[in-house]
């Protein structure tokens, strides 16, 4: 062949290649039929068009044969368009039949991270019909699939013959060892329009051994983030319920709401269902967890009535943003009986709280209106004496900074408490508080607080200790002035710094007797400790007032190391100038001149260990009236909390007996895959000893999560007796389980 003829043929070849760049681009789409068709992989690529960017071709030789009208690229062929790269030993485009074929070490790198391998690919230039011979897939999440052949029909249906899929990685030391689990199917069909994956004659294998067979099953392809279907079963058993099995069903109602419904069947407690509903809308959200069943009914004392009845519970919450300032919301907690939640191991509170609220936020101001309804679950709970709070209104205004040299805050609060039987109470309060901090040239930090509050009460059915009705109206005026001084001393060292900070506070307030007309509704949970020693008003509610003048003092010393080590000690006491025994119930450590000593010790020797000790010492003999010790470990393999709590008897409302408990919660990662978990709470001053004990063993790798959990609970409450339960966990990655 002459040089001129050869040059003319090469020029023609270049021209044909340019004219057929679209055809060569189709080669990239040809392997679309080998995209992730298995349930657990990614969405199938939809093909490539010439409009997706320029096609770059690298090959040792590109030949156009005008006789056969074929373009053939050979020798380490690499065709790329955008982020998609196709490599093969040979790629051929047949112009007459408009067929693209690739053969020899075919591989396709997808922009989404998948890699496809095949021996031979053939596809028409419309990407509607074709097949791949001996296909293997490596997905971005390291899961793998393979099939003898893949066929594409109608442009959106891909069928794999004799396919196998598994997200499990081969053993690094023994790659020939069978995978932990895999799915084999005679036929797998992926419909891109319906977004479904269907399996025919499918076998589930564990370590190479077939353990389950189904002639057919299907699920959504992974491009569908939410679609209705069954989830992994829940299996377990307990002494109260017997053997229990549940089959969750997930219902994708629409793009913004869904429902997970799990029917349970038990051998000793009949059948019941548990639901979890969620909805998100443009300016709010709503969620509800609920259960419903039918079975043996128990009376208020926990005795069976001999008849069956419906039973269940609901926990719901929601909020709605009305505008930039206001939002409304609700929380609902209700149970069909006092012990239902405990018997079915949902939770074990003493009471349930439901509320409906509206609140507004304006710069430095806040407003809220709330209504509360309660359900008592203790044996002593009586619906007739359970309060209904409607409304509880609160308003706070923080005025411009530097008001009279400090910060001024105004507040208003109103509440109405109603009971069918027992005390009903209404209150309205107005208050103002002013605070000014400053630092002297010597480094002393002063804080001056001045506050005033007025309360008006209107009560019904309030009786004194003699049983005399003292209900009626009363008002009180509550001024208070306090000055606090802190003098932090810092000493730098080579490895850190030392801090010593003496603190003193003087509070001036009248000794205001508690009116017998006022019922203590919102200040029952007071606990005197180091966190509220220097609080101007140590009660969180309104019904009790931290009356009388006092002098408070304490010292804090600490060391802060450059490497993160910290050690601190705090000790303080309060001295009251007036007798306030009627304000603080016995056992609280206040109200009789000198208070108990309160303190805290913290030690963090390293980043993974934190030690905390909080205590209250009797002012006379320095014995522990309250003693809390806690160690928290947050290591790479071990996470644990170990604690000890001891509290002496209190006659406060609610009354508390001596409590002496130790508790441990720990999780230890034995290796890369195995984790052991345990927890226990042990009452040292009780013959029953352990209140609850749990032990679990879990295995987690790239393709499976399995475990077993044992729990023993010694709680006794009417029909709720000590119980032992076992639950099993099995989740298979990418199979919707």
- CATH class value of one domain: Mainly Beta
Helical percent range? under 10%
Which regions are unreliable across 5 or more consecutive residues at pLDDT < 50?
1-51
Q: What structural category characterises the helix and strand content?
A: mainly beta
Say what the CATH topology of one domain is. lipopolysaccharide transport protein A fold
Tally of DSSP β-strands: 41
What does the largest sheet look like? Answer: 26 strands, antiparallel, barrel
Specify the CATH homologous superfamily of one domain.
Lipopolysaccharide (LPS) transport protein A like domain
Strand content: over 45%
Question: Helical element count?
Answer: 3
CATH architecture label name of one domain: Sandwich
- The geometry reads as elongated
Tell me, rounded to a whole number, the average pLDDT.
86
Q: How far is it from the N-terminal to the C-terminal residue, by CA?
A: 67 Å
Rg (C-alpha, Å):
37 Å
């Amino acid at each position: 062949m002459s040089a001129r003829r050869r040059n003319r043929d090469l020029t023609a070849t270049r021209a044909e290649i340019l004219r057929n760049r679209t055809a060569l681009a189709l080669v990239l789409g040809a392997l679309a039929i080998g995209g992730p068709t298995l349930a657990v992989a990614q969405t199938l690529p939809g093909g490539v068009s010439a409009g997706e960017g320029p096609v770059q071709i690298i090959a040792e030789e590109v030949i156009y044969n005008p006789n056969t009208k074929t373009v053939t690229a050979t020798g380490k062929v690499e065709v790329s368009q955008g982020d998609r790269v196709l490599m093969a030993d040979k790629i051929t485009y047949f112009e007459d039949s408009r067929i693209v074929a690739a053969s020899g070490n075919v591989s396709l790198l997808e922009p989404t991270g998948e890699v496809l391998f095949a021996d031979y690919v053939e596809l028409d230039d419309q990407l509607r019909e074709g097949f791949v011979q001996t296909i293997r897939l490596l997905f971005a999440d390291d899961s793998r699939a393979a099939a003898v052949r893949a066929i594409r029909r109608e442009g959106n249906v891909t069928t794999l013959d004799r396919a196998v899929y598994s997200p499990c990685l081969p053993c690094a030391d023994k790659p020939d060892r069978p995978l932990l689990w895999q799915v084999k199917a005679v036929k797998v069909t992926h419909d891109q329009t319906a977004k479904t994956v269907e399996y025919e004659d499918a076998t589930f294998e564990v370590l190479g051994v077939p353990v389950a067979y189904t002639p057919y099953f299907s699920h959504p392809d992974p491009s569908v983030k939410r679609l209705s279907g069954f989830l992994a079963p829940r299996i377990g058993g307990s002494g109260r319920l017997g053997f229990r099995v549940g089959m969750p069903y997930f219902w994708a109602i629409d793009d913004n709401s869904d429902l997970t419904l799990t029917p349970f069947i038990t051998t000793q407690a009949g059948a019941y269902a548990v639901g979890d509903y969620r909805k998100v809308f443009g300016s709010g959200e709503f969620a509800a967890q609920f259960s419903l069943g039918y079975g043996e009914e128990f009376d208020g004392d926990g005795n069976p009535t001999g008849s069956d009845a419906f039973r269940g519970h609901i926990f719901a919450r929601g909020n709605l943003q009305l505008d930039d300032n206001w939002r409304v919301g609700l929380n609902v907690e209700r149970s069909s009986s006092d012990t239902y939640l405990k018997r079915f191991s949902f939770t074990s509170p003493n009471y349930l709280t439901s509320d409906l609220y509206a609140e507004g936020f304006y710069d430095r101001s806040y407003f809220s209106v709330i209504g509360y309804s309660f359900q008592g679950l203790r044996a002593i709970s009586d619906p007739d004496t359970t309060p209904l709070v409607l409304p509880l209104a609160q308003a706070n205004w923080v005025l411009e900074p530097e008001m009279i040299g400090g910060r001024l805050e105004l507040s208003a609060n109103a509440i109405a408490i109603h009971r069918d039987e027992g005390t009903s109470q209404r209150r309205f309060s107005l208050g103002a508080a002013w605070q000014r901090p400053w630092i002297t040239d010597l480094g002393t930090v002063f804080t001056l607080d001045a506050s005033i509050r007025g309360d008006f009460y209107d009560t019904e059915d309030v009786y004194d200790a003699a049983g005399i009705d003292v209900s009626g109206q009363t008002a009180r005026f509550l001024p208070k002035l306090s000055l606090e001084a802190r003098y932090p001393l810092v000493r730098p060292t080579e490895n850190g710094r030392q801090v010593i900070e003496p603190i003193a506070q003087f509070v001036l307030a009248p000794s205001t007797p508690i009116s017998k007309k006022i019922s203590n509704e919102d200040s029952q949970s007071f606990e005197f400790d180091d966190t509220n020693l220097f609080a101007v008003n140590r009660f969180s509610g309104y019904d009790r007032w931290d009356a009388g003048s006092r002098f408070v003092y304490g010292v804090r010393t600490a060391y802060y190391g450059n490497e993160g080590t910290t050690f601190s000690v705090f000790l303080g006491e309060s001295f009251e100038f007036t007798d306030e025994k009627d304000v603080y119930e016995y056992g609280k450590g206040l109200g009789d001149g000198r208070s108990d000593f309160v303190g805290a010790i913290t030690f963090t020797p390293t980043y993974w260990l934190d030690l905390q000790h909080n205590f209250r010492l009797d002012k006379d003999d320095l014995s522990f009236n309250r003693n809390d010790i806690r160690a928290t470990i947050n290591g790479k393999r071990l996470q644990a909390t170990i604690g000890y709590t001891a509290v002496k008897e209190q006659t406060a409302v609610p009354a508390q007996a001596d409590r002496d408990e130790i508790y441990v919660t720990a999780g230890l990662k034995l290796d890369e895959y195995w984790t052991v978990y345990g927890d226990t709470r042990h009452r040292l001053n009780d013959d029953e000893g352990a209140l609850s004990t749990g032990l679990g063993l879990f295995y987690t790798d790239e393709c499976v999560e399995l475990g077993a959990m044992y729990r023993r609970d010694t709680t006794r409450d009417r029909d709720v007796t000590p119980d032992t339960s076992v639950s099993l966990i099995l989740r298979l990655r990418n199979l919707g389980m």
